Amino acid sequence: MQCYVELTPPTAVTHSLCLPFITTQSNNLVVARASILQIFTTKSVSAELDKAQNAQLQSTRSNEHYDTRVNDDEGLEASFLGGDSVLVRSDRSNLTKLVLIAEFSLAGTITGLARIVSKTTASGGEALLVAFKDAKLSMIEWDPEKNSITTTSIHYYEQEELQGSPWAAPLSHYVNFLAADPGSRCAALKFGARSLAIIQFKATEEDIDMDDWDEELDGPRPVKELSTTLANGTSSNEETPYSTSFVLRLPNLDPSLLHPVHLAFLHEYREPTFGILSSTTSPSLVLGRKDQLTYMVFTLDIQQKASTTILSVTGLPQDLFRVIALPPPVGGALLVGTNELIHIDQSGKSHGVGVNQFAKQSTSFSLVDQSDLELRLEGCEIEALSAENGEFLVVLHDGRLAVITFRVDGRIVSGLSLRMIAPEAGGTLIPIGVTTLSKLNKTCLFAGSENADSLVLGWTRKQGQSGRRKSRLQDPSLELDIDDEDMEDMEDDDDLYGEDYDPAQQPVQSTSTSNGKTGELVFRVHDRLVSIAPIRDFTLGQTTWSTAMEQADQSGVTSDLSFVCACNRGNAGSIAIINRNIQPKVIGRFEFPEARDFWTMSAQKPLPKSVQGDKAAPSAGPEYENSAQYDRYMIVPKVDLDGYETSDVYALTGAGFEALTGTEFEPAAGFTIEAGTIGNHTRIIQVLKTAVHCYDGDFGLTQILPMLDEETGAEPRIESASIVDPFILLVRDDASIFIAQIFKNLELEELEKEDSALTSTKWATGCLYEDKSGIFAGDQTDKGAKASENIVMFLLSKAGALHVYALPDLSKPVYVAEGLPFVPPVLSANYAARRGTAKDIIKEILVADLGDMTSSFPYLIVRHDEDDITIYQPFRVPSTTTQDLSTTLHFQKLPNPVIADDLFVPADDDEIEVNRVSPMRRCDNIGGYRTVFLPGNSPSFILKSSKTLPKVLRLQGNGVRGMSPFHTEGCERGFIYTDSKGLARVCQIPIRNTTYAEIGMALKKVPLNTDTHSISHHPPSGTYVVGCDTPEPFELPKEDDYHKEWQQEKDLAFKPTVERGQIKLINPASWTVIDTIEMEPCETIMCIETLNLEVSESTNERKHLIAVGTAVSRGEDLPIRGRVLVYDVVTVIPEPGRPETNKKLKLVANEDIPRGAVTAISEIGTQGLMLVAQGQKCMVRGLKEDGTLLPVAFMDMSCYVTTVRELKGTGLCLMADAVKGVWFTGYTEEPYRMVLFGKSSTKLEVLTVDFLPDGNELLIVACDSDGGIHVLQFDPDHPKSLQGHLLLHRTTFSAGAHAPTRSMLLPRTLPPDSEYITQHVNSSTNGTTDGDTDSAPAPPSIILFSSHTGALSALAPLSEPQYRRLSFLTGQISSSLPQHAALNPKDYRSPVSTGVVGRFPPGVDAGMGRSIVDGALLARWNELPAGRRAEIAGRVGFTSVDEVRDTLREILGASGFGYL
């Protein structure tokens, strides 16, 4: 059987919601990415600082925490240096950045989010209602005790008895959506054809606003019922925040609600009230009819389960599709149609506006004419900009921005109008329509998209009364006290109370697009969430270099191939280049076999005290400051060929280094364990095995601290060290520790170990950490402590206890946790495991900040014996009684499925010792990341951006002996390392358009700014050919003789758009477009493939050529035509100054297909022919020398061929039909003919299909439109297969939210001792006769899938023992770990039981109850504690946990793609 593994998470944002979720005061953004729920908070960052970091203008300030006072000082400094007032204003603006708090992977597809105000949440924040496909609801809230979400209720509406009539379509075929009452009294889930589930929530007395109760008018004030609370404070009622839900049939509310379109709960009603848009006529019968829709408002009496109709508006336009409830003071509901917007207030009074010329034709409803806007409102999203001013933002389906302005007289809406945002004011910042809009704060909103990057947009207003505001800001001392939010408040005040602001004049201004108008909105992008969804097509290609020198430098750190995909839609279309590992950009490369490690430092030269101490005047010595920020020296410990250990010091140059002589540095003193600077960069510390040497900034020796125990006379050797100014921690080989501090006299002195445990305990490892966040402070108000008072020491004893000391206090630990070796999900001071529970061996611990320049957070990083990494995030449990760390500090284990490679044991004993002591390295800034590097056989960076969890990414290449940050003028924010082959490299992490932690792989995005949907690699030239589409206006053909009336359609101003294809040639050396070919009008590109075709019948010469299949669609009245175009990539003379433009596309063949589009192309057979799916036929064609394509064989197909695949060189073919299933065929060359072997069910909608060789078996993997992955097999001997005419159905597995849309069969890389290889070698040798070598097993293969959500996944075959053990293992993991939102992963992966697949199985059932193994559950193996892992491993048949580790390393992640 097989294992399904998710390689990367989904990146498409499907839903979002802003609410106070974590605490009462927090402002959280909840983002849903199909099956992942993310919780963000916002952070305000200076725009000037952000720009400087993005431009990589490295400065010492960029390392510090953001502080508004710092930013103001910089603004002041600019003004003193002659900057004008405009510059000061731009410097002062702040950007709103997103910071991830938590992320949860759910076993379900999210279809809706709603916020519920609940008084019973543990955190005090609001609750979140999440709807899942098809009709499931979970109510979740934040649990501060666990630092996670907890599920408070679940609701399920997929039972048979709720599904209405037997002939109704399956639930998944209906649009099911969630709506919540703004007063949080109830929520409604519309599911099925006309069912409405009402979930009621218990309202407390505080929910009813009785402040305005007048006893004279309203009678005596009601008395609260005392029965609800007992004397002990508990409630006599049920303790759940919700009551029983019930299901309403919409026709029971009103007989006319037969075909509901949309509904929304309205604001400002005492009872839950919703407006619903519906029709009595089904959508299929409305052609030729007008104004069939009705808008009705119902108020619900939840207790009585009754309703009352408040108002009804009939005769509404047929194209309305959405109801949006508007907040006060506007109120009422906005009905959105494709051609108009209609507002209906609480009294039923309506105002509408038509936005194109079709509004008049499609409806008789009274509308204000704004048809000159020529807008299409399909797929638009609307969100409030300023509800007080009646302004709402519209994001159109093409990404353009518009503003709806309501004219409000008191509480009465007197009209509405639209105006477009000009491109120069940010009206085109969003490249394509969005799926969700959420307002983050007064001047910022989140625009989430399924088709492009999701953006955080902010806006400001251009003010006409700037003179008044400037007068406020003339005094620079006053300016320091005004932060950006106050500025925004002032601007809002100017809007509300400005002298020239008149609501009656507003519409006149709003229709104008001139820039000089008062209060015009100007938008800018504050932040973005990177997305590669949807992945439209992908290919694998080799890396090419612009110069031979660059190729030489990059050898050894570059993968063989890259995964290149065409992603995003519309103007956001891009190419994404993905690699498994970080591929550094090499600045310098040289042989350095004796080097074992590096330490770089930026020590200050000894200077007069006046310069050292004067930090208040940065202008006093700018040259000195710039020289100090770069690294100046590097200490290198060495081991020569004789095993002799020395250390050398080097002076750093631009991109290299040179030996430093003439100093008091002693090379012969021995091997350097650790080095760094303390005393505010004035002293250099070198930790040797036997002593600590202290130097000044010019390597003048100032002090030596020998390791000598005066009582015993022993000289313990130092094993590891940690240096954080002003302390040094040494761990020695006798398991003792040594702590020293540098004082104002710049002398190191040992601190007295007051706590007896410090001397009596055997210590294994430890580290120091500067706690800038205050998370480890006993009292969390200590955030303003001095730099030397927030140093925390972490020590791990040999017994596995974690001790935390707040230096310089060594009298007692502030925190002790005994359970770290058990690696529990949550580590706390009182965690205790059962006696005899298995432990992990911990080699090293390190506490370090992980993050980027926007935000960083401390993490406890645990390195295990096999170099696996466990990452713990500290969090404080809120406590009203104590701030003691032992009760409030917990550590939460974060998911990390990465398994390290096996340790390489060299023959040289000394090298074993050096490898063993190579510690993790904390790096403050490498390419803008605060990161930790793990040297060894699996060299890895632990990277985290502000919008992701920490991810472990391997460094491409060999094992690493040692590494250090390297920051010089020639290599800014880079690093230097030496690998196991003795090569040293000075490198940078590529950061231009490149991210790492977003998908856990290196991801580079190249924007093409046009709709990109096909891609293929041309190996001989190393280029990529991309198929794009550009929209253009469509006109009916004037030359058609049968339709004379088409010639009269000349004056149509608002024309429909059709796609016109383009072929672009891209050179990967610079990732630029070097050639473009336009297709005919109305011709779109359907597929692009690189084929190895025969180009000469006489010489049988083969050549790699580009084959393009197109479709010409000129309206539904004319038949579809197609073309097959064959191109070669030829070398030409490049354009001046652009050496990369030395390739062009040359047309080789052009074959017109008179009937049918060319939808799929593949190579076939051994003679260099091609298989072309054209219309309802599949033809084998050969390329002739005269440029024609000669058909030699064909097969009639059903409807629309989505995919054709051939098992290379065998003639075995698969053809997938969009509605009629899979055909398995064979092709023979003598004579030329195609033979049908077998079919699947003819009721299967197949998106993609591929072969999967598994040993001696050949399986067929088909993916349907519901996300089902079907494994089929051709077996003519099976009695039910009708001699093979019906394919056997082995199993079906659901990919859930990530339905595969593209697939590719690839070779699989496995270790030579893999159980899968040995199993198939043994089975083939046992089953073959002597000398018969033809039946050798096929090389291991794997299928790579891509999906519309941006997720990549793989399907890998397993050996029989592997399958049995891993199947049991998934069951054990599922029952051992909590499932968020109370979802069932087994049900999530089970095949769709409704719809076509449920009624008609894909083939003859021969599955015997077997299923594909769910790799998403296996990836959670490391989340289990060590004892549970050992217990489960023995229970399911593994000999040890290490064997589970080896098996999972073969299967999980991208380990099967070793060439990427």
Provide a compact summary of the structure:
The chain is mainly beta and 1460 residues long. The chain contains 23 helices and 89 strands.
Helix share bin: 10-25%
Rough shape?
A: globular
Enumerate how many helices there are, as a single number. Answer: 23
Parts with pLDDT < 50 across at least 5 consecutive residues: 56-91, 205-209, 224-238, 465-518, 612-628, 781-785, 906-915, 1328-1333
Counted beta strands: 89
What fraction strand?
35-45%
Structural class of the helices, strands and pairings? mainly beta
Distance, first to last CA: 25 Å
Radius of gyration: 34 Å
**Overall pLDDT:** 85
Main beta sheet: strand number and arrangement? 9 strands, antiparallel
Word description of this protein:
With 1460 residues, the chain is mainly β. The model is unreliable at 56-91, 205-209, 224-238, 465-518, 612-628, 781-785, 906-915 and 1328-1333 (pLDDT under 50). The chain is built from 23 helices and 89 strands. Strand 23 and strand 24 (391-395) form a beta hairpin. The two termini are 25 Å apart. The strands form 20 sheets. Strands 51, 52, 53, 54, 55, 56, 57, 58 and 59 form a 9-stranded antiparallel sheet that branches. Strands 85-86-87-1-89 form a 5-stranded mixed sheet. A 5-stranded mixed sheet has the order 18-19-20-21-22.
